Amino acid sequence: xxxxxxxxxxxxxxxxxAVLTAAELGLAFELPISRNxxxxxxxxxxxxKAALVGMFFMHLKFERWNLRIMALxxxxxxxxxxxxxxxxxxx
Amino acid sequence: xxxxxxxxxxxxxxxxxxxxxxxxxxxxxxxxxxxxxxMFFAALIGTYVILRFGATGExxxxxxxxxxxITAFNTFLLICxxxxxxxxxxxxxxxxxxxMRFWLLMTILGGATFVGIQVFEYMHLVExxxxxxxxxxxxxxxxxxxxxxxxxxxxxxxxxxxxxxTGFHGFHVTCGVISMAYLxxxxxxxxxxxxxxxxxxxxxxxxxxxxxxxxxxxxxIVYLI
Amino acid sequence: MTTVAATAHTAHxxxxxxxxxxxxxxxxxxxxxxxxxxxxxLFFLLIGGLLAMQMRWQLAYPxxxxxxxxxxxETMAPGxxxxxxxxxxxxxxxxxxxxxxxxxxxLVGVYANFLxxxxxxxxxxxxxxxxxxxxxxxxxxxxxxxASLFVPDGAARAGWTxxxxxxxxxxxxxxxxxxxxxxxxxxxxxxxxxxxxxxYITTIINNRAPGMTWFRxxxxxxxxxxxxxxxxxxxxxxxxxxxxxxxxxIIGTHFFDPAAGGQALLWQHLFWFFGHPEVYILILPAMGMxxxxxxNGSRKPIFGYHSMVFAIVAIxxxxxxxxGHHMFMSGMNPTLGSSFMVSTLVIAVPSxxxxxxxxxxxxxxxxxxxxxxxxxxxxxxxxxxxxLSGIYMAATPVDMFIHDTYFxxxxxxxxxxxGSLFALFGAIVYWYPKMFGRMMSEPWGxxxxxxxxxxxxxxxxxxxxxGMAGHMRRIYDPTQxxxxxxxxxxxxxxxxxxxxxxxTQLIFFVNFWWSLRKGARAxxxxxxxxxxxxxxxxxxxxxxxxxxxxxxxxPYEFSSPQVAEDYLPQYKKLPTxxxxxxxxxxxx
Amino acid sequence: MHWWLPLKGSTFAGEVDGLFLAITIITxxxxxxxxxxxxWFVVKYRQRPGRKAFYTHGxxxxxxxxxxxxxxxxxxxxxxxxxxxxxxxxxxxVPANAYPIAIHAKQFEWQVTYPGADGQLGTSxxxxxxxxxxxxxxxxxxxxxxxxxxxxSFFVPxxxxxxxxxxxxxxxxxxxxxxxxxxxLACAELCGLGHYRMRAQVFVHTxxxxxxxxxxxxxxxxx
Lengths: 91, 225, 588, 223
Fold this sequence. Notes:
The structure holds four protein chains of four kinds.
Chain B: H1 4-11, H2 25-54, H3 68-93, H4 97-127, E1 130-131, E2 134-135, H5 140-146, H6 155-188, H7 199-224
Antiparallel strand pairs in B: 1-2
Chain C: H1 2-11, H2 20-25, H3 30-60, H4 84-120, H5 128-148, H6 170-173, H7 177-206, H8 219-250, H9 264-281, H10 284-298, H11 305-318, H12 334-346, H13 348-362, H14 371-394, H15 396-402, H16 406-436, H17 442-468, H18 488-518
Helix pairs in contact in C: 3-4, 3-5, 3-18, 4-5, 4-7, 4-8, 4-16, 5-7, 7-8, 8-9, 8-10, 8-11, 10-13, 10-14, 10-16, 11-13, 13-14, 14-16, 14-17, 16-17, 17-18
Chain D: H1 11-44, H2 60-89, E1 99-106, E2 109-114, E3 127-130, E4 132-136, E5 140-147, E6 152-156, E7 161-165, E8 171-176, E9 181-187, E10 199-205, H3 207-222
Parallel strand pairs in D: 1-5, 4-10
Antiparallel strand pairs in D: 1-2, 2-3, 5-8, 6-7, 6-9, 9-10
């Protein structure tokens, strides 16, 4: 497991997460941009934060691919479900 | 890790076995469990997205019903507890059980405070008239609905989805706090974790970070959008 | 549970020092847990059958007092005449019991638990205690569901699919506590399945015996592995949906209530997003076990092992993108209907590949007709019919006519009864010696098989004709409709066949119970099979092996030219065999 | 009692029945191949003393053949079916000149609203009749389906038409009746304890008869 990978700087990631959260708050309530842009940017930031947690805190970055696949398999399924459910209202 | 060979006995699958994923059972089991948790939250979050997308009217604007400030603090708290969890993991990897116990205790406290604040938030919301069934008649929020600040048509769905999603997240946090407290008392205090075997810490950590990760998504889509 | 304990007690000669309760009730031994699942789910199978018999009585003789119906309370059948509200409870609970408490636990609860560690060569599951919780969670769910039959205003009555808003609002269905208990019970079942699945997956990935590489796994283990993945990812969706339904019922949320902005179709999406993988959960393990039995009965290696594996994997992948074919007529976006139609038709391909491979396995074999083999061949024949009739409803324009008719009922029973249940009868007989150390009676097994086969087809085949006439499902009294009146004789014929089919199952139950005590003692390898489980004494002892066996070859080496006898076990070392490379242990 | 599909009462019936027949031929061939093959193997290769089975692990060419043939057949079937599906239920399938009728389903009856003399729904001369669907023959009819409480399903077997009526949605479904006569409309989705008696009469009239009926019914409704 520990093929002598360098341990990430956890405090730095904590700072990242805190700053991104603050950015989200500012974006949601202060920034005068259109709703759709807000939506896209907020989702982008949320996924970024989630990825940071997954990659470093759950150390997926340092795992073998077959374990990563285990973590990733449900994501496309969830996406398919949500898109199909939403398509009800597009016609 | 420098003493890789010494960790083998505890951290690897039992010796005469076909090669699996090269991780011990509990860790693999936790990842498998988390995959199913993803699907559980996908059902809840998916429901929210589909209902909100298909709703026949405007959704309430963020920040009117929910208290963003206190939740932002709570979010920060959960992120901190995730960091303290990973610090505990790093400490025991380095063979420092004392530091590990400190950070684990911090994590437990952070998680417990999060749940406490959430309970407080719920009580506050219900008091102001926001319930899983929608806005309570005659309440403070009902006034906002009446004067058009809040859309009447979607408040029922808002209440249903909000309490279900955050409620189940809170339930997961509670479970995490209980299991960490259990491990703290039965394993960490008696000194059962060592540089050679810290499976419990790593496994419960994975669960804890997952709960944090879900909250990151929930906070954005429920409170900010 | 006392019966379980008693029978298991005689069967286990192995000595260990666990207390009675630890050994047989709160046991963590995967074999005991499998046997617990077996007894409980056979009981639920019987309950489900009894409910079906009452439905068939009403359909054949609407409004006439049912023999023995007098014991039912006034709220169900006053004077033995079934009430409409009781009839829809029967419909609902028959489906629920059969799917969630009979077929699924029989296939997964029993055989995943019993077979996986034995077939991959390990001492027990990766998480024995979680495994125990999986059983007890199922047990509680079953008790809750059973209890719901006896609450004052009756059991759930919105069909096993629980379409909202009928299920979500008590004023629509007329049942309150029954509906809520259904949701609660399903949450327990979901939990049970998730706990079981994560155990099976971890065990198969991490705990295989040395030499047991992925492509030496028996197809039963492969299919149970894929089934576990489906269960792991599908059941949480059902649990989530059931939780939301329960909230709609008890705390007044509005998820599925269109009157307050909720969506009726959302329930269907959630349910079938779980439900279609569920369909494969109900058939894949059967396919796997049938593959094992057919190779054994034909004394030939399975034909196209790799393509069988790929077919299972393909079914599992495609199984996630076909759920909409249950909703073609639901008002779903028709463009979505087109894509679901294509994916549904494509999923027929791996199923066809499997059928042809089974036939290829029998081709030029030396076929022994032991009871499991009879059931396995019947499985192939009946599953083929069920699979082919599925093509009718996959084609959306045809589905427009046959959707929600008896054609569907015929189709699903051909797959679930003709498929899964035949495979299960075969599997029960096949692994009975390893479970209990005794053989089931062969002549009675054959009698049971032939009578079941005949009455089963007499029951379900005519339903295709009814469906083609437009006979709707779930109707209490078909004679209300003029266009269905001419078909009443056929309904009578089906019902009589169904009664005989049910009576035939009593042969099986008697054979099962009688053999526990009086069956011939089983030898170690009565079917001359290759799997690792046959290297153990019958019944298999606690902890399975002292030292796990080493695997030298695939599981289907029948009639190999290397040896004189017509089977070559996976654990048998020939002089030409080399020891498998040990898994790298450290510092890879 | 028929052993085949019922009377063809709408323009869809020919298409649906044709597809049904085509699928029956395809599946019939597969059925015969599988079942006859099984019986043949079971008889021919039954156990005999002193014989050993043929030791083989499979044949790639056979696998390719029996993967390709079903795959091609299924995709072709999908394309053909989709052609009819788009025509029958597609987004833009409803003909522009279709005669509108609104059907509101509730536990346990069908409320059929006719457009009155002006041929338009939503005007003051609309009138509602319970459990009777009257349609003119040879003219496309579009049904605006809605539901009061739970999901119901509009099903007229002779028309081969089925469409769920979902609360909170309005769904349009069209058909064109071809044979005058008296038929039945059933609810095909379990909708509660009265599901089995949620039945309506369907009358297919010639245009003259229909006009006469409409006039009379409007008068009766007005009283």
